[in-house]
């Protein structure tokens, strides 16, 4: 604990928590401060001028990061027959139908993303209380209820990120690792922010993006100049 405290103290030295920094400079600063012995995750947090409780201000979607997330995602697929075989061939970690439902009901969830063919939703629907709170419930709008399970598995494994605004209008996600090059992180940030901009809810009035910050797992956050991300 003492070592972690010293590392955090060093990372925060000379940091102005209120300073606004251009995107390119912010990425450089975040990488320089990610000095932990493990490969820290780089995260983005966006404070949006929305109230997700209102239907015309809800925000949810997916975006494929051009350079992936650096995280190995475990994918579970509910499918039968040929579709189950397609999922396995595409690299799904867990594939099944009623048997997989029973495993999940028993409290064993060995996947970070859940995909299902449409005919499986009657089964998956019984798992709503288990999968829903974990954000794992398959959804057609997110491409996780589909007949093209191979493409869905490939997208999940290839760096596709799901996003959803929380009650306070905050969206956050991991957009890479500290070991990524600055160029790769910049491309991922631009892809993520671009997706948020493209999915702007119809009910938004006034300024859409209020604040944006980048941070690493063990490092301080850096606030971005809105002008460097507003038009992405």
Outline the secondary-structure elements.
Elements: H1 2-12, E1 20-21, H2 23-33, E2 41-48, E3 60-64, E4 75-78, H3 81-90, E5 94-96, H4 98-105, E6 113-116, H5 121-124, H6 128-131, H7 149-157, E7 160-164, E8 170-177, H8 182-198, E9 209-216, E10 222-224
Parallel strand pairs: 1-10, 4-5, 4-6
Antiparallel strand pairs: 2-8, 2-9, 3-7, 9-10
Helix pairs in contact: 3-7
Organism: Elstera cyanobacteriorum
Keywords: Repressor, Ribonucleoprotein, Ribosomal protein, RNA-binding, rRNA-binding, Translation regulation, tRNA-binding
Family: Belongs to the universal ribosomal protein uL1 family.
What characteristics describe this protein?
232 residues, alpha/beta, Ribulose 1,5 Bisphosphate Carboxylase/Oxygenase, Rossmann fold, 2 domains, five-stranded mixed beta sheet, three-stranded parallel beta sheet, 8 helices, globular
Q: Overview of this structure, please?
A:
The structure is a single chain. By secondary structure, this protein is of the alpha/beta class. The protein folds into 2 domains: 16-69 and 160-228, Ribulose 1,5 Bisphosphate Carboxylase/Oxygenase (2-Layer Sandwich); 75-157, Rossmann fold (3-Layer(aba) Sandwich). The protein is 32% helix and 22% strand. It contains 8 helices and 10 strands. It has helices at residues 2-12, 23-33, 81-90, 98-105, 121-124, 128-131, 149-157, 182-198; strands spanning 20-21, 41-48, 60-64, 75-78, 94-96, 113-116, 160-164, 170-177, 209-216, 222-224. The strands form 3 sheets. The chain has a 5-stranded mixed beta sheet, covered by helices on one side. Helix 3 (81-90) packs parallel to helix 7 (149-157). The longest helix has 17 residues, at 182-198. It is globular, with a radius of gyration of 19 Å.
